[in-house]
Amino acid sequence: MKRIYVNEKWCLGCHLCEYYCAFAGTNEKDIARALKDVKISPRIKIEERDGISFAVACRHCREPLCVKGCITGALTIIDGVITVNKDQCVRCYTCILCCPFGAIAPSNDGAVQKCELCVKTNEGDPACVRGCPNGAIVFEERG
After folding, report:
1. Domains in the chain and their CATH numbers?
2. Close Cβ partners of 37 (under 8 Å, ≥ 6 residues apart)
3. Which of 37, 79, 86, 87 has its CA 20 to 30 A from that of 116?
4. pLDDT attached to residue 121
């Protein structure tokens, strides 16, 4: 299964992937209009430590602890992609505590959010990959 991978050596720490991720969740055509005066809540986050920038996003684990820890079944695996059913989420945040990578966070509406590889937009590669100016984020299958 294809997953998102980041080459930390190429990451500029520009945070554009976060903006493209937040934009992918809108139904707008223009990124500037869609995100103007909006506090974004992306599903991918850039962390910076000791001069190294890297992206934190869901790794869509083969045996995900977040899915096992979800008490309502709001997190499920569909074709290898871990997805969130916001209507089933009771905001207990057990999945946040279970994720060893810190890839799940509360959303603006209280339910949890995480990277779902832009499967709902059906535009090929995820938005963060398409928007990365340096090609540091790739969407590929690895052994």
Report:
1. 1-57+120-143 (3.30.70), 60-114 (3.30.70.20)
2. none
3. 37
4. 76
